[in-house]
Every structure is written in structure tokens, then in C-alpha cells.
Amino acid sequence: MEQKTKIKALEGKQDVVITREFNLPVELLYKAYSEAQFIEQWMGTKVLKLENKTHGSYEFETSYNGNVVFKAHGTIHEVIENQRIVRTFEMENMTIGVQLELLTFEAISDEKSMLSIRIIYQSEKHRAEQMKLPFAYGLNMAHDALETLKFNNA
Amino acid sequence: MNLRRDVFQAIADPTRRAILLLLTTQSMTAGAIAANFNTARPTVSKHLQILTECDLIKQEQLGRENYYHFNPEKMKEVADFVEPFRKMWEEKFNTLESVMQAHNNAKNGTKNKD
Predict the structure, then answer these.
(1) Does domain A10-153 have CATH number 3.30.530.20?
(2) In what order do the strands lie in the sheet with A113-120?
(3) Per-domain residue ranges of chain A
(4) Positions of E strands within chain A
(5) Helical (H) or strand (E) element with B60
(6) Which of A60, A128, B27, B103 could form a disulfide with A45 if both were Cys (CB 3.0 to 4.6 A apart)?
(7) How far apart (Å, rounded) are the C-alpha atoms in residues A31 and A54?
(8) Which residues does chain A have within 8 Å of residue B28's beta carbon, measured at their own beta carbons?
(9) What is the ipTM for the molecules in this complex?
(10) CB A50 within 8 A of CB A72
(11) Burial, A97: exposed, middle or buried (Cβ in 10 Å; 0-12, 13-18, 19+)?
(12) Residue in B closest to A6 by C-alpha
């Protein structure tokens, strides 16, 4: 299958560019980022607060079995409807630090749109921490599976 | 490019990740590895073969026994890749697309009824 999501992370730099083409009109793509009910659905997180406006802010939280497993927040610097969101993003209790996110929404046709996210990290090292996270998460899942296996065999 | 994809296919499987984790602390024979799983021995052998082909683990003859050990270099290479990060976004964006398409269809459906 074709890889729709593209990542550009050049060596020696502290930013990442994520691009993705969607089979969605640009208004719908923007809606997915600007309305809490949709963010909750596709990001799988609870939206505690979202003021999607220039000088606004937001707060996300995800719980699993009654424990908070993910908490993130940021301030929204600039919003231009269907075009642009500039915001900060920081995951709590993580070593990734605060990041600046520049989101650009672009119409390709009436039915297609393009999202481009440029994320700037505090340093190249912080960016590396972010890249390793999904990988480490995968290994942790394996670790949990292994613990269960051992327990079952005992 | 093909090789890289193979590595990620290799670590996409939970049993293979569990095998890798077992081998991070010690070298083990195929039998000793298989003893940790409820799956049949040939299934474990197949997993070991895939991991070996990807260079994630290596085989070494010690006496009469064949020991498997973890190849940290290859794992480091994998950890540095942006692929797991990309995959995470690919999945989230796929969800975004279907959530918004469903929303759009529902909205249009209501319009047509009016």
C-alpha cells in the first residue's frame, strides 16, 4: 500500500515536517483539528479544554483503567480558519520538552486537501526522544505480553 | 528500502518482540526460548528464522548447542529510524479521514432527507 504520510527529519536539524494528503475538503480537515468532538474521536484522547482562537489554549488527557496515561497541553498562537494553526505542544512528565507546531491546511481540489505540520523541537536531542517514543511503546507492549505469558506459565 | 520494511514487519509481531526482549538479557537455545511461549515449537522456529534474516538476532554454535543472541547494532539502527513515528501518524490520520468522511456522509444524508 502507498504510504500517504510522509516524514522529513533531516540529520543535524531539530525539526520534523509531516505531510499527508486527505480525501477530504479542506474545511473538514480543519474541523478535525478545531472541534473537540472530532479531536477526541481521531486522537483517542479526552479534550479537557480547547479554545481554538488566536491567543487560545488547549488541554488533552487520556486515561486507561482509571489512570491518566497521557496528558498534553499548549497555547494557540495564531488561527486562520481553514488555513493555519500555530501552537505549542507539550506532553507532561516526558523528556521531549515543549515543541512549536505550524499546521498548514491547503485545498487541492473540492474533495482533496493537504495537511503539513512542521514541528520544531528544543534541540536535535529532544527530536530524537520523540522519534524513539513509538518504538519504545511497542517494546513495552511486548514486555507486558511477556509478563502475562510468564504469569500464565507459572 | 525493502530490507527496512522487513525489519519493521519483524518487530510488528508481539511474539517476535517478546523473543527480542528475552534475548536482551541472555543468549538462549531455541528450546529455552520456546519454553516461554504457549505456541508450538515450529511456530517459534519460524519467528527465530525471520528475526535472524533481519539481522535482529544472530546464531552461534556453542558446543553442541545453537545459541541465539540479540544484535544490539541492528536494534539501535531500528530505534533511530523515524518509521515507528511515521506509522503512528499514518494510523491516526487514517482514523481522522474516516471519522470526517462518516461525519460528512451523515450530514449529507440529513440534507437529502430535508
Answers:
(1) yes
(2) A5-8, A15-22, A113-120, A99-107, A84-91, A67-80, A56-64, A46-50
(3) 10-153
(4) 5-8, 15-22, 46-50, 56-64, 67-80, 84-91, 99-107, 113-120
(5) strand B57-62
(6) A60
(7) 16
(8) none
(9) 0.84
(10) no
(11) middle
(12) B86
Residue with grid cell 507539550, as numbered in its chain: A90
- pTM greater than 0.80 (yes/no): no
Whether A76 and chain B come into contact, CB under 8 Å, resolves to: no
Taking only the tens place, the pLDDT of each residue in A94-115 is: 888 999 999 999 999 999 999 9
Q: Which residue of B has its CA nearest to A35?
A: B100
Which residues of chain B neighbour A18 with C-beta distances below 8 Å? 89
- Which 8-state DSSP code applies to residue A75? E
Long-range Cβ pairs for the range B102-107 (8 Å, 24+): B103/A28, B103/A31, B103/A38, B104/A24, B104/A25, B104/A28
